[in-house]
Amino acid sequence: MEKFFIENYSYLTYFVELVAVISGIITYKKYKGTPATFFIKIIWFSFFIELIGSYSNYYNTFEFLKPIFNSIFKVNYWWYTLTYLIGVVISISIFYQKILENIKFKQLLKYLTIAYFLSVVIYLLINPDLFFSQIPPVISILAGILVLTSCVLYLVELLLTDKIINFYNSVYFYITVGLFFWWIVVTPLTFYDVYMVNSDWKYILLKWQVFLSLNFMMYIVFAVGLLISKPEKVNE
Amino acid sequence: MSNFIILLLKDPATSTAAERYLLIYMIFVLIAITSLVILFFIVFQKRKNKLLIDKIKQKQAFEKELSNAQTEIQEQTLKNIGWELHDNVGQLLAAASMQLNILKTKLDNDDVLNSFKDASDTVKESLKEVRMLSRSLNNEVILNIGFEKSISNELDRLKKMKFASAELNVKGDIVEFENKKHEIIIFRILQEFFSNTVKYSEAKNLSVILDYQENHLKIIAKDDGVGFDMTTVNKGAGLLNMQSRAELINMEYQLLSQPGDGVTLELLYPYKHDTLEPF
Lengths: 236, 279
Description:
The structure holds two protein chains of two kinds. Chain A has one domain. In chain A, 73% of the residues lie in helices and 0% in strands. Chain A contains nine helices and no strands. Chain A has helices spanning 2-27, 36-53, 66-69, 77-99, 103-126, 128-133, 137-160, 171-189, 201-228. The model of chain A has no long low-confidence stretch (mean pLDDT 87). Chain B folds into two domains: 20-137, no CATH class; 150-155 and 163-279, Heat Shock Protein 90. In chain B, 62% of the residues lie in helices and 13% in strands. Chain B is built from six helices and five strands. Chain B has helices at 17-106, 110-137, 139-145, 147-161, 180-201, 237-248, and strands spanning 165-171, 205-212, 216-223, 252-257, 263-270. In chain B, helix 4 (147-161) runs parallel beside helix 5 (180-201). Chain B is elongated. The interface between A and B is large, with 48 and 33 residues.
C-alpha cells in the first residue's frame, strides 16, 4: 500500500485536480460574464503549474532535463514560490476583490495584496539564496494570511447581506470553503518542512496523505460547487 | 506545491512520533473549526430566512386587511348612493309621476294628451330604472334576492340600455355559498366587467354562464365587442380591482381578449376555503 502510494502520489493529485479542471471546462459557458470564470482560469492555471512543477520527478526518465539537473533550478521550489505563492495567491485575492461588494473590504484587500507583493519581493531580495533552496516559510505564512483574509472578508460580507439566503446556490461560497479548508491546514505545515528530507519517510508519507486528502477535498468542493451553483451577476 | 523531492540533504533531522501526532491533531482541530464555521452559516441562514418569511407574511396579512377594508368602504359607498337614489331621486320622480297623473285628468286635447302620456311614461320608466340601479348598488338587496337573480336583473337592465341580447345561463345544481359576502364580491367583479363592456367594447351581445361543478363554480362572462390587446393594454383601476377582488376570495381569475374578438372573463370559485377569512 505504501509502495503504491509513493509511486502514484503525483498521479492521484493530478486526477483530483483534473476533476476540477474538467468541471470548469463544462461549466465555463454557464458562468460567462461573471467573476467565476476568472476562478475557473485560476484552477486551470494551477493545474499547469503542477504539471510543469513536477519536472524534478523525471530527471531519470527524460534526458533533456539533464541541464536543469546540473543547474541552480534542480529543485522545483523556485517555481512554486514564483507561480503559486505569488501568481495564484495574488490571483485569488484579485478574484475576491471582484466579488466583494463592500468598498472598504475591497480596498483593504487591495492594500493587503500590494503589501504582500512588496514584502515578498523585498524578502527575496534580502535572502536570494532561500529562493532556490526552499519555499520560504515567511512567504507561505504571508500567503496563507492573505488568502484566509480574503475568505473571511467574503464570509463576513455574506453574513451581513441578504446573499446569505441563497448561499448554497453561490459558487463563491463553495470556492471560499474549499480555499479556507486547504489554506488553514496547509499554512502551519510549513514549520514541519525541516523534515521534508528523503530519510524521514514517516513524515513525508504523512504529509503526502494530508496533502492528498486536502487536495481531494478542495478540488471536489470546487467541482461540485461549479456544477450545482447558479451563476450570479455582480454589480461592479 | 505538493510534490517536492529534496535531493539535497541539508538538515538530517527526523520527525518524532509525538510531533507527527501533534500535526494530525492540529489538522483535526482545524477541520473541526472550519466545519463549525460552515455549520454556523447554515444555522444563520435558516434563521434569517425564517425572519424574512415572517416579515413577508406580516406584510401580506396587512395588505389583505387593507384591501378588505377598501372593499368594505366601497360597499358602504355604493350602498349610500343606492339609498340616495332610492329615497331622494326616486321620491322626486315618484312625486313628479303623481303630479303628472293629476295633471292628466285636467287635459282634454287628444294631441297634447298623447305626448303627455309619453312624458309620463318616460318619468315612470326612469323611476323604475333608478329603483333597479339602487337595488344593484345595495349589497343587502343582492343578498336578499339572491346571486343569480341579481345577475339576471343587472343583465336585464343592461339589455334595455344598449344590448341586443344579454343572457344568463345556469348549469348544474345551484350550490349555496358558505360565505354570503363572496356573492357580493363576485357580483361586483361581474358588474365591473359589464361596465367595461358598456364603456369600451361596442358589443351587441353579452352572456354570462354560471356552471356549478362538483367542487367549484365556473363563471364565464363574454362579450362580442372590439376586444383589446392583452399585451399593450393599460391596466386601469377597473381591471386591477377585478383581479385583486378575485384574489381576495381565492378565486382563479383569467381575462382573455384579442382585438376584434371580444373579451372573455373566466372565474373559478372553489366552494371550500381552507382558511376562514374575515370576509
